[in-house]
């Protein structure tokens, strides 16, 4: 009998491009599955696309209006019975540390009762969890899973930007994060990054300058400069200073980057923040939406030897923070009204019951309704952070 540790060992020993094939064989052998399918969420988070050897893959399904989409959205197993075929299909979320990758769909024969046994469903979810971890590792060595995420070809700039990102969602006991970029297949310079430490969460949100490859190269320089400074142990002001010098040294002030840099102290909820230009920050607290006013400082790379001074505020359990680029809050309706005037607050309130991982996609859909048929004038970035706080010991 294949116990979870045996499954994990089999996946680790498989070639990167074969890990799903190995898992499928294990499930077919142990549970006599009729079919086993892995669907990956596309870059726009609107489709679930089957993994297979291109171009011979199955048709994608909606990430919202489908049985697999229901498991993907709720992040819980969803079973569908087919009485005529005497089968049950279990759709299981494939996620790792809160990052939603896709769905594992397994069709099994069932007897007269027509229900899947609880132990079988638990086994399948353990397989899906093991697969999620191995997919993240395998993506370093194979393109199979990255190709399955594409509903269309990425521009080169978008390819560069997506490779920078840490994920699109993340969860720890103290917080949950979700983020999304649009247009997903042709983004330019907007970006986000985060890194978790035992007592700190570092987070950056950048609003890129320019278009195409130039914007992507600028953002790559900024993000990697900030990572280099953070990993060297510099404080938030030192991280901003080093990135500022790297960008100015390369472009002499002709190109620069607007960035928010934050450090959350997990035990206390104290937030250290540097507002180097934009994006903007909104807070939802006890049903009230408010913009967080910060002292603006110079964008990274605009001037030489800029000294950055952090500000402070505190988050409380239950707070929701929204980080939003100017492509969102400056978007105009057909009548010329900015999205940030009225529609943004309504959107923040209207998505308050959704988990953080689903908020960015929902807000960007509402932005399309506000903008109408007008084309997007800029990248659009939304990041949502739900603060839960750290429970006291004992």
Describe the protein's architecture and organization:
The chain is of the alpha+beta class. It contains 11 helices and 17 strands. The chain has helices at 4-13, 19-31, 67-74, 118-138, 144-148, 156-164, 212-231, 236-251, 326-329, 343-350, 359-371; strands at 35-41, 47-50, 61-62, 78-82, 87-96, 99-109, 169-172, 175-182, 191-196, 200-207, 258-265, 270-276, 280-285, 288-291, 311-314, 320-324, 380-387. The strands form 3 sheets. A 6-stranded antiparallel sheet has the order 3-2-1-6-5-4. A 6-stranded antiparallel sheet has the order 7-8-17-16-13-14.
List the helices and strands and how they pair.
Blueprint: H1 4-13, H2 19-31, E1 35-41, E2 47-50, E3 61-62, H3 67-74, E4 78-82, E5 87-96, E6 99-109, H4 118-138, H5 144-148, H6 156-164, E7 169-172, E8 175-182, E9 191-196, E10 200-207, H7 212-231, H8 236-251, E11 258-265, E12 270-276, E13 280-285, E14 288-291, E15 311-314, E16 320-324, H9 326-329, H10 343-350, H11 359-371, E17 380-387
